[in-house]
Amino acid sequence: LDAISREDLREWLIDLGAHQLSENSRRRLISAVRGFYKFLMIEGHNTVNPAELLDVPNKGHYLPIFLNQADMEMLLAAPDVASETGLRERAVMELMYACGLRVSEVVDLRLKDADIDSGILACTGKGSKTRRIPIGKSALKWLKSYLAARQKIEEIGVENLFVSSLGRPLNRQIIHKFIGEYAAKCGLEGVSPHTLRHSFATHLIQNRADVRSVQQLLGHSDISTTQIYTHITDDHLKKSYETFHPRSKMD
Questions:
Q1: Is the same domain home to 37 and 93?
Q2: Do 74 and 58 fall into the same domain?
Q3: pTM of structure
Q4: Domain count, the chain
Q5: Which residues make Cβ contacts (< 8 Å) with residue 123, sequence separation at least 6?
Q6: Is 152 a catalytic residue?
Q7: Would you say residue 170 lies in a domain?
Q8: Which residues neighbour 153 within 8 Å (Cβ) at sequence distance 6 or greater?
């Protein structure tokens, strides 16, 4: 239970919204989760409470937060890739955005999971289900650069794909921290590792990818969860229409 993060719970909230549960039903479920984690904290079973600041979104406000493509490019370009740390963090963010990965999936990746020759990533997600995802040219380029630098680290002794300069596996807290810092540097608010996953899915849908393919890439067991992203793009199109079409404001 310590492995469950606030982002996991937020994704669960989005899933509840996709299944059209009423606001009252969602409030009851979240109240139960909060109470459960409070009990775990009191009994000493958990050291963190991911449900502590979890709010029930108002009706119609459970859509995922994502970056537009220009802001996404700005975020990806934020690390100083001349440094070993910056290169690694660029590779992490590129891979997360290119493959729509959860932060928990990133820290669990092993060297063998990235097939550089074929450009395919084998990712084990929720329910121990493995999905194969194309890496994409940009992410593949940064991943190759990172792997070349990784080989120079002495006495690694672990098979994790992403490791620190001391050869230790990255954890979720480290990734949360540097993504938040780069987002702040870019003037972007409310950005978390899961924002990259949401942006991945939203940009695919915006560029006419079919929902079933996006479902498989995200590893969603239920397509209704993936269909949330079609609602996002519908809202985006409507706002664009209302802003730019000359007849949208006529009485």
A1: no
A2: no
A3: 0.76
A4: 2
A5: 99, 101, 105, 109, 113, 130, 131, 132, 133, 219
A6: no
A7: yes
A8: 163, 165, 166, 167
Q: Is there a domain that residue 34 lies in?
A: yes
Same domain, 127 and 26: no
Which of 19, 28, 59, 126 is the catalytic position?
Answer: 126
Q: Could you write out the DSSP letters of every residue in 22-50?
A: -HHHHHHHHHHHHHHHHHHHHHTS-S--T
Q: Which of 206, 72, 50, 197 is nearest to 126 (CA)?
A: 197
Which of the listed residues 137, 156, 190 is the one where a domain comes to its end? 190
Residue 134 falls within a domain, yes or no? yes
Nearest-angstrom CA–CA distance, 32 and 14: 17
26 is catalytic: no
- Residue 167 falls inside a structural domain: yes
User: What are the pLDDT digits (tens) for 182-239?
Assistant: 999 999 998 999 999 999 999 999 998 999 999 999 999 888 888 888 877 777 667 7
If you ran DSSP here, which 8-state letter would residue 128 be given? G
Could you confirm whether 126 is annotated as catalytic?
A: yes
Please write the tens of the pLDDT for every residue from 27-83. 788 788 888 878 888 877 776 777 776 665 554 445 678 999 999 999 999 999 999
- Is 197 in the active site? yes
CA distance 160 to 104: 13
Provide the residue range defining the domain that includes 123: 70-190
134 - beta bridge partners? 120
For residue 229, indicate whether it is catalytic: yes
168 an active-site residue?
no
